[in-house]
Design brief:
The protein is of the alpha/beta class. The chain has three domains: about 170 residues, FAD/NAD(P)-binding domain; about 100 residues, FAD/NAD(P)-binding domain (3-Layer(bba) Sandwich); about 100 residues, 2-Layer Sandwich (Enolase-like, domain 1). Helices cover about 25% and strands about 25% of the residues. The chain contains twelve helices and 22 strands. It is globular and about 65 Å long. About 40% of the residues are buried. Flavin-adenine dinucleotide binds next to helix 1, strand 2, helix 2, helix 5 and helix 8. Flavin-adenine dinucleotide (FAD) binds next to helix 1, strand 2, helix 2, helix 5 and helix 8.
C-alpha cells in the first residue's frame, strides 16, 4: 500500500505510528508545508523563554522518519486532491498517487475583523517560524511595549514567552475573561490575578483598535480555525472542520483525516465539534493509521481537556462545565484583589449533572486527576456517590473493580502521548 499524509505534526505522527503497527512495508510519504522536522507545537513558547531549543523541541527523534520507512517532503504544500484519480498535487508541480490518504493539515490563526489592523505589521503565534520571527523582533526592539489581541491560550502563552524579553505587555480581548474556552469565570479570575501579579495588564470586554494604544510590537492571537482548503477540493463533508467518524474516516473510503482540521463526536456530549488539542490529534491520527493499513481501530470520541501552565501556575481541565458545582480550594473571589497572595491559591471544581461527572477544573491541585478524567470520558454513573466523598476521597478503591481495571488499562496504553494523560 502507498500512503500519503498531508501535514507533519501530531496527527501525522499518530498516523505514521498507527500504520506501522499494522503494515511494516508500505511506502509512507509525508508532505509538510513547514520546513522543519516534526516538533511539539505547544513548546514554541518555551523556545522564546530559552527553556528549550530546536533539538529538544522535536516531537520524535531525528531518525524517526528513517526508522519508520517514511519519506518526508518538507517545506512544500499540497495544493489539490483529485479524489477520482487518487492523486495529490504539490505546489512544486509534483503529482503523487495514493492508495490511502490522511489529511492532517491542522489549524491556522484566526484573525477577526479588528478596526485599523491593516495599518500595522503584526505577529501571529502558532508555528516555530512565528516564534523565531517574534524572537528576532524582540531582540531588535529593546524594552518593547507589546500589545496582544486575544486572552485565550495562545495569547497568554505568547505573553509568557516574551515576558522577559520586553518591558510591558497589555492583553486585550472582547471576552469578559481570560481563557474563556477553557475556564469558568471564577477560575479565570484566579489566572488573571496571577498574571497581573507578574505585571501583565488586561483590558477585557473591550472592542478596541490598535489605534487606541501605543506599542512597539503587535501580536494577534485571537484563536484558530481548521485548515480545510485541500479537503474542500476533494468534495469531503466539511462543517467547521472536515467531518470524520470514530474510525477517523471521511465520506471517501480512501481518505482519512485527523487532528485540528477535523470535526468529530465529543466523548462528553456526543455532539459534533472541533477539539483542537494535541492528545486528540495524536489519537485520531493513530486511529486513522491503523484503519488505513487494514487494521481495526476506533477512538472513543474527542475529549475536551487541557493541561497547561502560566508562570508556574498549572491548570488541568476536562469536559464541560454544566450542572451542580462541587468546589474546594483556597481561592475565593475576594482573593482576586490581593495580588500578593493569589499565586499561592488553589482551586478544584467538579461539575455533576444527570448522575455523571461532566467536567472539572483543577488549578495547582491534581490529586486523582486521572480517575476524574476517566469518569468524564466514560460517562460513568456516579449517582450513588456522595458529593463530599467524590471530591475529597475519589481514590481508585472507591469505585467498582470493572472501572478500576479500565483506568489501569488506559494508563498503560496511553502513556507518552501527552503529559496531561499521564496523570492517571
Ligand atoms: C502556542 C500553542 C500552545 C499550545 N498548547 C497546547 C497545550 O498546552 N495542550 C494541548 O493539548 N494543545 C496545545 N496546543 C494545540 C496543539 O498544538 C494542537 O492541537 C496540535 O498541534 C494539533 O496537531 P495537528 O497535527 O492536528 O495540526 P498542526 O499542529 O496544526 O499541524 C498541521 C501541519 O500541517 C501543515 N499543513 C497545513 N496545510 C498543509 C498543506 N496544504 N500541505 C502541507 N502541509 C500543510 C501545517 O503547516 C502544519 O505544520 C497549542 C498550540 C499552540 C499554537
Amino acid at each position: 500500500m502507498n500512503y500519503v499524509i498531508i501535514g507533519n505534526s501530531a496527527a501525522a505522527v499518530g498516523g505514521i505510528e498507527g500504520i506501522r503497527r499494522v503494515d511494516r512495508e508500505g511506502l509512507i510519504t509525508i508532505v509538510g508545508e513547514e520546513p522543519y522536522h516534526v516538533y511539539g507545537r505547544p513548546l514554541i513558547s518555551y523556545l522564546l523563554e530559552g527553556k528549550t531549543d530546536a533539538e529538544r523541541m522535536k516531537y520524535r527523534p531525528g531518525d524517526f522518519y528513517e526508522k519508520n520507512g517514511c519519506e518526508l517532503k518538507k517545506g512544500v504544500a499540497a495544493v489539490k486532491i483529485d479524489a477520482k484519480k487518487k492523486t495529490v498535487a504539490l505546489e512544486n508541480g509534483e503529482v503523487m498517487p495514493y492508495g490511502r490518504l490522511l489529511i492532517a493539515t491542522g489549524a491556522r490563526p484566526f484573525v477577526p475583523r479588528i478596526r485599523g489592523l491593516e495599518k500595522y505589521e503584526y505577529h501571529t503565534f502558532m508555528t516555530l517560524g512565528d516564534a523565531l520571527k517574534l524572537k528576532a523582533k524582540t531582540d531588535a526592539v529593546k524594552n518593547a511595549k507589546v500589545l496582544i489581541f486575544g486572552a485565550g491560550l495562545i495569547g497568554l502563552k505568547c505573553a509568557e514567552a516574551i515576558y522577559k524579553r520586553v518591558s510591558e505587555i497589555t492583553v486585550v480581548d472582547m471576552a469578559d475573561r481570560v481563557l474563556p474556552s477553557i475556564l469558568d469565570a471564577e477560575s479565570s479570575a484566579l489566572i488573571k490575578a496571577h498574571l497581573e501579579s507578574r505585571g501583565i495588564k488586561f483590558l477585557l470586554s473591550a472592542d478596541v483598535s490598535p489605534d487606541d494604544f501605543q506599542f512597539d510590537i503587535l501580536c494577534v492571537c485571537t484563536g484558530v480555525t481548521p485548515e480545510t482548503a485541500v479537503a474542500k477540493d476533494a468534495g469531503l463533508e466539511i462543517g467547521r472542520g472536515i467531518f470524520i467518524d470514530k474510525n477517523s474516516r471521511t465520506g471517501d473510503p480512501y481518505i482519512y483525516a485527523a487532528g485540528d482540521c477535523t470535526e468529530s463526536f465529543s466523548a462528553v456530549t456526543g455532539r459534533r465539534g472541533v477539539t483542537p488539542i494535541l492528545p486528540n490529534a495524536y489519537i485520531q491520527g493513530e486511529t486513522a493509521g491503523i484503519n488505513m493499513a487494514g487494521g481495526s481501530a476506533e477512538y472513543d470520541g474527542a475529549m475536551p481537556m487541557n493541561a497547561i501552565g502560566f508562570f508556574g501556575k498549572h491548570i488541568l481541565t476536562a469536559g464541560i462545565y454544566e450542572g451542580e458545582e462541587i468546589k474546594r480550594g483556597s481561592f475565593a473571589a475576594a482573593s482576586a484583589s490581593d495580588l500578593s497572595s493569589v499565586s499561592a491559591c488553589t482551586l478544584k471544581k467538579l461539575f455533576v449533572k444527570d448522575g455523571g461527572l461532566k467536567g472539572f477544573i483543577f488549578i495547582d491541585d491534581f490529586k486523582r486527576a486521572g480517575i476524574y478524567t476517566a469518569l468524564v470520558r466514560e460517562r460513568r454513573d456516579i449517582s450513588g456517590l456522595d458529593a463530599d466523598a467524590l471530591i475529597e476521597n475519589a481514590g481508585l478503591n472507591f469505585y467498582p473493580k470493572e472501572f478500576r481495571d479500565e483506568v489501569l488499562k488506559r494508563r498503560e496504553s496511553r502513556q507518552g502521548i501527552y503529559a496531561g494523560e499521564n496523570l492517571l
